[in-house]
Amino acid sequence: MGKAGQPPTVLVVEPRAEDLERTRTLLGEAGFRVVPLTRFDAAMPLFEVIRPDAVLLAAQAPDYAAVQVARRLRQVSRGTVPVLYLVEPHDLEAYRYCLDKGQCVDLVPRTASGAELALKLHAQLKLKAAVMRAAAGEESGTALALHDPVTGLYNKPFLLALIGLEVRRAERYGGTFSLVAAEVGGWSAFRKEYGRGMAERLLVYSAVVLGQTVREADAVARMGDNQFALLLPGTPAESVPEVLARVSARFETARFQVEGKVVRTALELGAVSFPDAVGTPAQLLGAALQELRRTREFRRMVGGPTRLSV
């Protein structure tokens, strides 16, 4: 539900009148209150008036006005309003542009069914609501700490709670999600050589890089020592390789300086997807870590990077 128990309000900005009407009808049938708009320049004034629960923006060449609007929306709402791009499924240029320049906003095909659109929106709204409820409890001192004290990311107990929410959502409404485990290679040796303080700085640096790589709807947590995990709502198994490639590429270009030397961070990754993998939140996380270990062993066999390099 949206504000005050009303149906969630979705602002849809789509220059194509026919596509706008189709999206409005699909979301209306799925129980959303839709505010349709054909002009991107009117999006911000209308957003500030109606304060929607979510926003859908049609992204297309040549100007990609949707990306500029998404940037302003995130600034105004401080990231509290989920945003999705509507992209033509066969427009690879638009797809790549939104992945590279789109402010980590999630994408959905323009031709998606009402069920797919609804699942995407419900996933983001439920996750955002859960985080806000937990944060409110933390501020009033009635909930356990949500964040890792070193990196500022979510901690393991809270991520397990979010995974539980995603499992229940997927079981009730259908759909999928993925879970990625990540490990900074060679961290123990790095800590031994440079000390705990410098090793923790490396973890903070790694956390920042991860946070800059994922989408707004995703959740990043520190599992302990040099291990992290990413919860990707609405992400099917076939989309995971692209996510892993994006994260790996971001870490390959990242640099961390220690005593005047540049350190390249090496990251090991493993992932599982629901419903291909099922079980309790702890079991799903364990399965992702197992995939990470398999990947690490494979890299060792073929001579791939498993440590930090200076």
Automatic annotation (TrEMBL):
<dbReference type="InterPro" id="IPR050706">
    <property type="entry name" value="Cyclic-di-GMP_PDE-like"/>
</dbReference>
<dbReference type="GO" id="GO:0000160">
    <property type="term" value="P:phosphorelay signal transduction system"/>
</dbReference>
<feature type="domain" description="Response regulatory">
    <location>
        <begin position="9"/>
        <end position="125"/>
    </location>
</feature>
<dbReference type="GO" id="GO:0071111">
    <property type="term" value="F:cyclic-guanylate-specific phosphodiesterase activity"/>
</dbReference>
<protein>
    <submittedName>
        <fullName>Diguanylate cyclase</fullName>
    </submittedName>
</protein>
<dbReference type="InterPro" id="IPR000160">
    <property type="entry name" value="GGDEF_dom"/>
</dbReference>
<dbReference type="InterPro" id="IPR011006">
    <property type="entry name" value="CheY-like_superfamily"/>
</dbReference>
<dbReference type="InterPro" id="IPR029787">
    <property type="entry name" value="Nucleotide_cyclase"/>
</dbReference>
<dbReference type="InterPro" id="IPR043128">
    <property type="entry name" value="Rev_trsase/Diguanyl_cyclase"/>
</dbReference>
<feature type="domain" description="GGDEF">
    <location>
        <begin position="175"/>
        <end position="310"/>
    </location>
</feature>
<dbReference type="InterPro" id="IPR001789">
    <property type="entry name" value="Sig_transdc_resp-reg_receiver"/>
</dbReference>
<dbReference type="Pfam" id="PF00990">
    <property type="entry name" value="GGDEF"/>
</dbReference>
